[in-house]
Write a structure and sequence with these properties.
The protein contains 11 helices and 16 strands. It is an alpha/beta fold and 383 residues long.
C-alpha cells in the first residue's frame, strides 16, 4: 500500500521534510518513500490530499491499561503495595487492552505507548512499549524497555503511613541500592559458576529480573520530581553504570546546567497538572522549553491516567505556548520519545524498515481544534 500526496515529516537523522511525497509499506513495514507521485496508484492506495504526515505519536510514560475507564478501584493495577521492591513484576501481566483509553489514544494519533507500573515502590517492576491497537498484549508488545524506580514522596508516604520502611528519602535510595547490589553479586556468582552447578546461586527472581538492566540491555526509568531526588537518581545510576532517563523531572528547569553536564535525558509531564503535592511546588509549563534550549533531549508524556492519554497533543501545544519550538515539539512525541525509550529501531521516524505507523493532520497537530485526518498502525488504517 502507498500513502501519497502528503508532506512527510520523516524525523529521520537529517530531519528531512518531503513536501509532496509518498510512503509505501508492506506487511506493516515501510518499504519505500520518495517525492512526487508514485509511478502507479491503485484503488487500495491512500490519497492524503496534501495533509502533513508524521510518524505515529509516542506517549513515553503512561499507565495505560492498568485501570479501566468507568470501573473504579477494583480495576486498578498500578502498584503492588505489599512489597517495596518488586523488580520481578512484568508490566505486560497488568495491561488490559480492552480499556477504552487505547481507542482514545489512537484517535489522538498516538500509536505507541510506554506503559509503566506506578510510583509507590522504590523498585516497581518492568516497563514495556506497546502499540495502541490490539486485543492481546503479547501481539501489541514492541519490547520491554526498562525497569521502574521511584524516588521521593510517593514511596516514602506510602510506607510511612503504614509504619513500614521506607519512611525517608535515604531509605528509598537505600532499598534501590540494596536490590542492585544483590543483583550484581547474583549475576557475578552465576557467571563464575557456569561450569559448576554446586556453586551456582539459588534462583532469585528479583535479582534475575535486574540482570538486563545491569547488562545495559534496558534502561532505568527514575520517577523523580524534586531537584534533590533527580540528583539521587543520577547518583545511583552512575554508581551502577546504568543507562537511565528521568521521568517527570519537574524541577529540571532549575538545574538544567547540571543535567546538561550529566548528558541526562528527561520525559516531561504531566503538563496539564496543578501542584497537588509539595514536591510539585516548582511545576511550570516552561520546563520542556527550558530543558530543550539547554541542549537536553526531552520527550513529553501524559502520565495517563493522571492526564488522559488523548491530551498528549494538547500537552505539547501548551509546552509550545511556553517556549518549546515546533520542531522540538514534534521530536518530543516522535524520534526523541523513541530514542529515550529505546525503541527507535521500530518507531519514531518514517524510515525504510521501520513500522508503518503514521498520523496525518491538515493543520498543526498541537492546536486544540486539531484532529487526525487518518491514523495507521502497522500499516493498517485504524482512524
Amino acid at each position: 500500500m502507498t500513502i501519497y500526496n502528503v508532506k512527510i515529516h520523516t524525523m529521520n537523522a537529517e530531519r528531512e521534510v518531503i513536501d509532496n511525497g509518498y510512503v509505501s509499506f508492506e506487511n506493516g513495514v515501510i518499504t519505500k518513500l520518495g517525492s512526487g507521485k508514485p509511478a502507479t496508484v491503485t484503488a487500495t492506495d491512500f490519497d492524503g490530499n496534501g495533509a502533513d504526515l508524521y510518524p505515529g505519536f509516542i506517549d513515553s510514560h503512561t499507565h495505560l491499561g492498568l485501570t479501566t475507564n468507568g470501573v473504579g478501584v477494583e480495576s486498578e493495577d498500578f502498584n503492588e503495595e505489599s512489597d517495596p521492591t518488586s523488580s520481578q513484576l512484568r508490566i505486560a501481566d497488568g495491561i488490559n487492552p480492552m480499556d477504552t483509553s487505547f481507542r482514545e489514544a489512537v484517535c489522538a494519533g498516538i500509536t505507541t505507548a510506554v506503559v509503566s507500573p506506578g510510583s509507590m515502590n522504590p523498585v516497581a517492576g518492568s516497563i514495556a512499549a506497546v502499540k495502541t491497537v490490539g486485543k492481546r498484549v503479547d501481539k501489541m508488545l514492541v519490547k520491554t524497555v526498562g525497569m521502574k524506580f521511584s524516588m521521593g514522596e510517593n514511596p516514602k508516604m506510602t510506607y510511612l503511613n503504614r509504619d513500614e520502611s521506607p519512611c525517608t528519602r535515604m531509605a528509598v535510595a537505600g532499598m534501590i541500592r540494596d536490590a542492585l547490589f544483590k543483583a550484581k553479586r547474583y549475576m557475578e556468582n552465576k557467571t563464575s559458576s557456569q561450569n559448576n552447578d554446586d556453586d551456582r546461586p539459588d534462583f532469585d527472581i528479583k535479582s534475575e529480573s535486574l540482570i538486563p538492566l545491569l547488562n545495559g540491555e534496558v534502561k532505568a526509568f527514575f520517577h523523580c520530581h524534586r531537584a534533590d531526588d533527580i540528583f539521587t537518581a543520577i547518583r545511583i545510576a552512575n554508581e551502577f553504570d546504568l543507562n537511565y532517563t528521568l521521568v517527570h523531572c519537574t524541577d529540571g528547569h532549575l538545574i538544567a546546567d547540571e543535567l546538561r553536564e550529566e548528558n541526562a535525558t528527561a520525559i516531561i509531564g504531566p503538563i496539564i497538572c496543578d501542584p497537588c503535592k509539595p514536591e510539585l511546588a516548582n511545576i511550570t509549563p516552561k520546563n520542556a522549553g527550558v530543558l530543550d534550549k539547554a541542549g537536553i533531549k526531552i520527550a513529553i508524556c501524559t502520565d495517563h491516567s493522571e492526564v488522559p492519554v488523548q491530551y498528549l497533543p494538547i500537552s505539547v501545544g501548551i509546552a509550545m505556548k511556553h517556549g518549546l519550538d515546533k520542531q522540538s515539539a514534534i521530536e518530543a512525541v516522535t524520534i526523541n520519545a523513541a530514542e529515550i525509550s529505546g525503541i527507535s529501531d521500530r518507531v519514531g521516524s518514517v524510515d525504510v524498515g521501520k513500522d508503518a505507523d503514521f498520523v496525518l493532520f491538515d493543520k498543526c497537530p498541537f492546536e486544540i481544534m486539531s484532529e487526525p485526518e487518518a491514523v495507521f498502525v502497522n500499516g493498517v488504517k485504524v482512524v
